[in-house]
Design goal:
- The protein is mainly α.
- The protein has one domain.
Length: about 240
């Protein structure tokens, strides 16, 4: 579902472009002395705002891709851990070590890594990312602890490549990388959203305030009851928190 707020940002930019079109139709009558209200400045703001929205979309897609890749990578952990525990049982590992391994396995099998659904068109859900990050981090920690424990068993010599210690260490590296990429992408989209919001909503110089100033200028030139002002004043803008 498309986020109302994300759609609202794009609507503000589209309406700003409509405002520019209306201003251009006024011809030489539109001649503000303030640099920020001149057509060249309005066009520059429009281009900057459009680019900022495009960047948010790109960063959103990068975040979604990172989330999907992490979910796929971590989906292998639980069945792999079950196989590792079985392989460990046919070694000469002592009772206490096997007990510890079983405890770790229970933590891995029972620890719920909260799945963050990819974002379609809206904002990233900041309230859910925190719990998910902790959950995935704990899964990595538990799996790493299990592999470290297995490394102490000299008779653990599987012939299956995916159960070998070198392969397991490579998998741990992969898990850390996948988890880190989600964190990086999450921070990146957050920063890009803040930049977009500055361009659109910063007091005095943001797109919304400039649009309102343009309306006031047209009102001052043509009057409140003029068709020129009424036409431009109907173009809606909304500040989105």
């Amino acid at each position: 579902m498309k986020s109302t707020s994300e759609t609202g940002h794009a609507i503000n930019v589209a309406n700003f472009n409509n405002l520019i079109t209306s201003v251009m139709a006024l011809g030489a009558m539109y001649a503000p002395s303030k640099a920020e209200l001149k057509l060249a400045s309005l066009n520059a703001i429009s281009a900057s705002a459009t680019n900022s929205i495009d960047e948010v979309m790109k960063k959103r897609n990068a975040y979604n891709n990172a989330v999907n890749a992490r979910m796929l990578g971590f989906s292998k952990m639980r069945p792999l851990t079950t196989r590792l525990l079985a392989a460990l049982h046919i070694t000469d590992a002592n009772f206490e070590l096997l007990k510890d391994a079983k405890t770790i396995n229970r933590k891995i099998q029972g620890k719920r890594a909260l799945a963050i659904e990819p974002v379609a068109e809206g904002e990233v859900a900041p309230k859910s990312i925190s719990a998910s990050q902790v959950s995935y981090s704990q899964l990595i920690q538990h799996f790493t602890t299990l592999v470290n424990l297995i490394e102490t068993v000299s008779s653990y010599q599987p012939t299956e490549n995916d159960l070998k210690l070198d392969t397991l260490q490579t998998y741990i590296t992969e898990l850390n990388s996948l988890h880190s990429e989600v964190s990086t992408a999450y921070i990146s989209i957050g920063n890009t959203r803040m930049e977009r919001n500055q361009i659109l909503y910063k007091p005095l110089v943001g797109l919304i305030n400039i649009a309102l100033s343009v309306k006031l200028y047209v009102k001052s030139v043509f009057g409140a009851k003029s068709p020129e002002y009424k036409g431009i004043n109907k173009i809606p803008f909304r500040t989105i928190a």
